[in-house]
Amino acid sequence: MTIPSFTVCIGNARLYLGDAYAILPTLGRFDRLVMDPQYEFDNSGGGEYRAARGASDQIVEEGLDQGFDHTIINSLLFDAVVVFCHNDQLPKLLPYLDGNYHRTVVAFWAKPNPPPHRNKHYLADTEPYIHAWNRGHEPVGAHHDMHRFITAGSQPSKLYGHPTVKPEVVMDKIMTNVGGQSVCDPFMGTGSTGVAAIKAGKTFVGIEKNEKHFHTAVARIKEAHARQQEAA
Ligand SMILES: C[S@@+](CC[C@H](N)C(=O)[O-])C[C@H]1O[C@@H](n2cnc3c(N)ncnc32)[C@H](O)[C@@H]1O
Asked: What's the 143 CA to ligand 1 centre distance in angstroms?
């Protein structure tokens, strides 16, 4: 399938509709990659629990359970990366990041409203994100920021028509700790990373291949930009 291509500029944000694997290599360096790519996990079955898992069918339909190509994270181009993942991805993703970056840590955010377990997985109520950095690009933040364990209800998929929208409070904390001035999210979804980057006064570049989610991201980022302008 050919993915359509399109670019929208909003203040300090540039949003691409298209394929991250084709577009990102043409964009050069960014201080930070903050990304929430496809998780890789078995989304089949579920019996009586499946209905309570909300967006399972949409996750499968949109291929959001198929994983991603780790080599899109290039430590020569991005001095630090934050990447969300399923806990089943940790055994493969951690060695890749550890082999490419100076330090690699796993952090977690907690969901008070987790979906029922999928296929005997652990940790339905916590989700990891990995933060890896080159020398000189360590995490930033005050003591209490660094130690805060974020608890946030996952966003209902009906809010933005996307099954895996990341909560604003989680993205705000990450944006505080990741440092850097230019941020790229090559798997932008509905633009949660972009909204947090704009709130933090950073420049943002996002890529999303799904046209519907791309337009949701455009609307959210326009709104975040307008709020920033009003506050200035
Ligand atoms: C886990 S979701 C991100 C959700 C986002 N964090 C949010 O809060 O809305 C991953 C997104 O990557 C997109 N995606 C998957 N493969 C892609 C590709 N090759 N290029 C661009 N986007 C892609 C999917 O359409 C999906 O919206």
From this structure: 32
CB of 73 closer than 8 Å to CB of 83:
yes
Residues 6+ apart with CB under 8 A from 26: none
CA of 156 to the centre of ligand 1 (A): 17
Q: Map residue 34 onto helix, strand or coil.
A: strand
The ligand 1 site (C-beta within 6 Å) comprises 19-21, 36-38, 62, 64, 162, 164-166, 187, 189-190, 192, 207-210, 213
The pLDDT tens digits for 97-155 are 999 999 999 999 998 877 766 666 766 788 899 999 999 999 998 888 887 888 887 76
Residue 93 burial by CB count (10 A; 0-12/13-18/19+): exposed, middle or buried? buried
Strands (E), the chain: 6-10, 13-17, 30-35, 78-84, 103-110, 126-133, 182-185, 203-208
Domains of the chain, start order: 6-41+65-105+128-150+170-231 (3.40.50.150)
Digit-coded pLDDT (tens) for 80-102: 999 999 888 999 999 999 999 99
Ligand 1 center from residue 142 Cα (angstroms): 31
Helix (H, G, I), strand (E, B) or coil at 35: strand
Write the residue with the smallest CA distance to atom 8 of ligand 1. Answer: 165
**Ligand 1 atom nearest to CA at 192:** 8
